[in-house]
Amino acid sequence: MATIDEDLSQIERDLRVLKIEYEQYFGGGRPRPPSDTQWRLEQLIKRYAERGGEMKFAQRFRYNNLAQTYAKYQDIWRKKLKQKEEGIVQRHFGAAAKAVEAERLRNAPPPPTTAEQVQRPGGYVVACSNPDSEKQKIEDLYRVLVETKQKAGENTDAMTLENFQIFVKQKTAQLREQNKCDAVEYAIQIEAGQVKLKARVKA
Fold first, then answer.
1. CA angle 65-71-76, nearest 5°?
2. pLDDT tens, position by position, 132-188
3. Domain assignments of the chain as residue spans, ordered by start
């Protein structure tokens, strides 16, 4: 039986695949909507909708992000399906290119896990130049930091995404002003058993 983390990773993969398959469908590369993939994804999301008590904080945070992302995409797809049925969808010449990119992504090796990334030399690194327009990047950085701290046995109860976003915004502006640089790198590293978040000027 799959663990919660494995199921969340499966939701993440299915969501990525479903997005690609819908792009193919709306671009003319698929004859039918990807109903099978969507059904499988919805079953997993519904399974954990009422099991919040079984998940740790980082798992709930990750699940909520995935569920919200799916709801956002679902609304977009519903509107596009309606437009397609009414015959008002414009065809784009980029459909073939999207299909090629989707095939490349399918054959690409899966990304390394959070633990693998943090343990690598240099740690998990994210570059930011304008946090206001890079919210997904900041959310991913926050999620990795929380998960890594919890795996290391550190308390994360006082951490919130809102405060983290404010910190990154202020720190990025401060370092860019002081060093006249375009971007700031944030690296999550493990030193002497403790999880550290380090900000440094991007060369």
1. 130
2. 888 888 888 898 888 888 888 888 888 888 889 999 999 989 988 888 888 888 888
3. 4-107, 114-201
Say which range, 44-48, 125-129, 140-144, 189-193, has the weakest mean pLDDT: 189-193
Per-residue pLDDT reduced to its tens digit, 35-73:
898 999 999 899 888 777 888 888 888 888 999 999 999
Which residue has 């997993």 as its token pair?
A: 44
Longest Cα–Cα distance in the chain: 61
Contacts 24+ apart (CB under 8 A), 135-140: 135/165, 138/164, 138/165, 138/168, 139/65
Phi and psi torsions of 88, nearest 5°: -115, 15
Residue 170: half-sphere exposure toward Cβ, Cα within 13 Å: 6
Q: How far apart are CA 129 and CA 32, in angstroms?
A: 40
CA triple 59-10-104, angle to 5 deg = 130
Strand partners, 47: none
CA 97 from centre of chain: 23
Pairwise CA distance, residues 56 & 155, whole Å: 12
Residues with Cβ within 8 Å of residue 179, at least 6 apart in sequence: 201
